[in-house]
Design goal:
Elements lengths: L1 H15 L7 H5 L3 E4 L1 H8 L6 E4 L3 H6 L6 E2 L7 H5 L8 E4 L4 H12 L5 E4 L2 H7 L7
Parallel strand pairs: 1-5, 2-3, 2-4, 4-5
């Protein structure tokens, strides 16, 4: 019984821990910035071409995604290989469904040498909650 209680406590603590808890060092250097869906929307619909990455599965991407997003699934083995086609000197925007996958992707991009990474807070769920457009 005690083991079950400890396990439940750990699960609850993990669930309530912020999924976007980046280290202060990463934030201070400006390498990864958590931005709102509106900020991503403004970037997507600006005149500039941006590197926008949907890190969800291909099935999720096919159901709906942001206009101009390319699908590079963070859980696929070829993630690092596909990311190598991106320009490390230019900003890259990442999003997933709720935020866990994009955090993982942002940290991996940082490790690979990307210098400006924008992670969309709340993922596609918050985007849709704000009633912003999606492509199908």
């Amino acid at each position: 019984m005690k083991k079950i209680l400890v396990l439940i406590t750990l699960v609850v603590l993990f669930a309530f821990q912020s999924c976007k808890d980046y280290s202060k060092e990463v934030v201070a250097k400006g390498e990864i910035e958590l931005i709102s869906p509106q900020q991503v929307y403004d970037a997507v619909y600006s005149e500039d071409i941006i590197q926008l990455i949907d890190v969800r599965t291909p099935k999720e991407y096919k159901e709906s995604h942001l206009e101009g997003a390319q699908n590079i699934c963070v859980t696929n083995e070829d993630f690092n290989e596909k990311v190598k086609t991106l320009d490390k000197s230019k900003p890259v925007y990442v999003y997933c469904n709720q935020g866990l996958g994009s955090k993982q992707a942002a940290l991996r991009l940082k490790e690979m040498g990307f210098t400006k990474i924008y992670d969309m807070d709340g993922g596609l769920l918050m985007w849709k909650e704000r009633k912003l457009e999606v492509s199908k």
